[in-house]
Amino acid sequence: MTRVLFVCMGNICRSPTAEAVFRRLAAQRGLLGELEIDSAGTHGYHVGETPDARTQRAAAERKYDLSEIHSRKVAPEDLEHFDLVLAMDRSNLDALRKLCPANRLHRLKLFMSYARQFDDDEVPDPYYGLAHDFDLVLDMIEDAADGLLDSILRERGEQEAPKITTKAPAAKAKAN
Are 84 and 4 in contact (CB under 8 A)? Predict the structure, then answer.
C-alpha cells in the first residue's frame, strides 16, 4: 500500500481538492484499495471545518464531493506514516521540512512536480482570489494527480493503469 498525504496551509482549499481528485482517479483506475489518501494543513486555523464553500462549489461542478473532508493539521506522526507528503507550494514544503525527521525528508515533494501540462511548480492559493482561481487550481491538481498515479505505478514496476476519460464523446453527425 502506498500512503499519500496532500498538504497546503489551512487544509480547506488545495489539499482537500487534491485528496478528492486523487481518490476519484484511483477509484476510476481500480486502485483505491492499494492507496491511503489524506490531506492536512501546516496551520491549524480551520481544524474540524469542511473545505471552503468556493472550493466545494468549484469541485462540485466537476462532480467531486469534498463535503466529508474535515480540516486537520499535519502531525509529526504523519511524516513517519505517509510514503509521500506532497506540498502545494514552497512555503508549506519548508514548514514540513522543519517538522520532518532527517531520515524522512526524501518523502517530501512539491505536488506539481508530477504535472505534465503545467510548468508551474506550485499550486497557487485561491483563498483570496476569484472564482476562476478555483477552476485553475482544479485544472492543475487534475494534471498533477494523473502524473502522480502513473509515477506510483512506475515505481512499483507496474504498467500505467488505463486512463478513464471523463469527457463526453463528441456527437456523431447524422448520415443523410
Answer: yes
- List the catalytic residue out of 38, 52, 89, 125: 125
Cβ neighbours around 2 below 10 Å, total: 18
Question: Is the pLDDT reported for residue 127 higher than 60?
Answer: yes
CATH at residue 130: 3.40.50.2300
Q: Tell me the C-alpha distance between 145 and 143, whole Å.
A: 6
Structural domain count, the chain:
1
Q: Please tell me which residue in 14, 29, 72, 107 is annotated as part of the active site.
A: 14
Tell me, what DSSP letter sits at residue 97? H
Q: Is residue 174 one of the residues assigned to a domain?
A: no
* Residue 8 among the catalytic residues: yes
Q: Is 14 a catalytic residue?
A: yes
Quick one: pLDDT at residue 156? 86
Q: pTM (2 decimals)?
A: 0.89
Nearest by Cα to 24 from 111, 125, 149, 121: 149
User: For residue 56, what are the domain limits?
Assistant: 2-155
**125 carries an active-site annotation:** yes
Based on C-alpha coordinates, what's the Rg of the chain? 17
Per the CB < 8 A criterion, the answer to whether 114 and 121 are in contact is no
